[in-house]
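Researcher: Next sequence.
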Amino acid sequence: MSEILLSAENVSLTYKTRVGGFKWFEHKALNDISFALKRGDKLGILGRNGSGKSTLLRILAGIVPPTSGSVICTPGVKRSLLTLGLGFRQDLSGRDNALLSAMLQGYRRRDAKARLEEIKEFSMLGDFFERPLFTYSSGMRSRLGFSTALYTGIDILLIDEALSVGDATFRERAQNALEQKLGGDQSLVFVSHMPGQMAKLCDRVIWLEGGVVRMAGDVAEVSEQYELPAEPMRE
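Model: Next structure:
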C-alpha cells in the first residue's frame, strides 16, 4: 500500500462573529471532513464560492487550526500552500523571495541558488524577478509562487485555484508543467470550482457544498453531478 502523507480526521471549523451588542452569530464553515492523501495521489476539492474549499486547504497547510478533528502530516513531509504570494515579503525581490522559500523547504543556500534561474525562466517574470514584490500584480505573485513551489521538491502541493490567475499563456504553461511533474510521487490537493481543470490534473474529487462533503469519488462521475442544475430548496 502507498504511504499516507496527509490525513484529515473529522475536521470541522466554526466561526463566531459578534453581531451588535452581545449577540453572536455562529457559522460552520466545515463539518466532519475526513479523507487520506497517499504518496502520488492527485485529489481535487471541487465547490462553488463559499463552499469551504479554500478554508479546508488552509487547514491542511497547518495555517488555520480546526475547531474539532485533526490533520495529521507524516513527519518529514514537505507541503506548500500555493496561493497568491502567501508568506512572501513585499519588500524583497522575486529572486530573494524564491531563495528564502527554497531554504525554508530545507534546501541549503547553495542548492537553493542553483534553482533560481529555472524559477525565473518558468515564471516568465523577466526583469520583474529582480524587483520588489509590492510592484507585482496578483497574477505575477501567483506565477512566482507557482514556479517556486514547482522547482523546490515539495512532497504535497496545495493549490488554491492558482491556475485560474494570470494570462492564458502562463495558465497553459503551468497546467502542462503540473501534468508532467505530477506523473511521479509528488502529491496534489487542487481546489477549484472548474471541473475541466480537475479532469486534467486529478484522479479523484471531493465535492464540498455548504461545508460538507456532497459527493466523493471518480472525477467524471462527481463532475457530472456537480454540473447538474441545483435542486430547489425545500421547506
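Model: The radius of gyration is 19 Å. Helices lie at 53-60, 94-104, 109-123, 138-150, 168-181, 195-201, 219-226.
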